[in-house]
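Below is a filled-in request sheet from our internal design queue. Each sheet records the structural input a requester submitted and the sequence that came back. We keep these sheets so that new team members can see what a complete request looks like end to end.

REQUESTER: design group, bay 2
PRIORITY: normal
MODE: inverse folding
CHAIN LENGTH: 132
BACKBONE (tokenized):
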């Protein structure tokens, strides 16, 4: 099931985050800030296994992660579909080295529309986008 983030979810979100982005995980303060500014949805089975954060006003995906033990089961796809349903479009920055995320977004019909030099300070980002 997909539902809105609540602060009781924070511990699991931080676990998923550190398993998904070992070198650049967001901390609890960043997630708190996201929860105030953006749509923050979690995917829950017996426990929380994924999340997506996006800006409802324009479909910008600020972050998405699925627990490594639960990948390739269509959960990331379900979460991006929520953005498309809500906003009619979606876009995200993706590290040029993150081939998994690029493959994921490409299969979902996103295309690379720009490169932002040094977006991650030490690394460029592709901007990937699709409309409904
Ligand atoms: C990217 C991510 C969110 C995908 O989540 P997921 O739930 O595994 O994705 P799905 O199961 O919906 O995958 C849909 C399709 O994307 C493609 N895909 C997903 N992971 C892939 C991989 N590792 N290699 C190649 N293709 C992949 C496949 O075509 C897949 O369909 P298939 O499994 O039927 O072949 C997940 O890998 C993740 O959390 N990665 C770490 C965090 C991250 O990089 N976030 C994005 C930052 S921009």
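RETURNED SEQUENCE:
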């Amino acid at each position: 099931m997909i539902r809105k983030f609540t602060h009781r979810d924070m511990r699991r979100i931080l676990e998923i985050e550190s398993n998904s982005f070992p070198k650049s995980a967001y901390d609890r303060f960043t997630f708190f800030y996201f929860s105030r500014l953006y749509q923050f949805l979690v995917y829950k089975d017996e426990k929380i296994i994924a999340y997506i954060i996006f800006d409802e006003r324009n479909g910008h995906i600020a972050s998405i992660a699925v627990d490594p033990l639960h990948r390739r089961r269509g959960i990331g796809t379900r979460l991006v579909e929520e953005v498309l349903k809500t906003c009619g479009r979606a876009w995200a920055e993706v590290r040029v080295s993150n081939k998994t995320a690029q493959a994921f977004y490409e299969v979902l019909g996103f295309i690379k529309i720009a490169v932002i030099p040094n977006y991650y300070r030490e690394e460029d980002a592709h901007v990937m986008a699709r409309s409904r």
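SHEET NOTES:
- The mean pLDDT is 96.
- The domain at 2-131 is CATH 3.40.630.30 (Aminopeptidase).
FILED BY: M.R.
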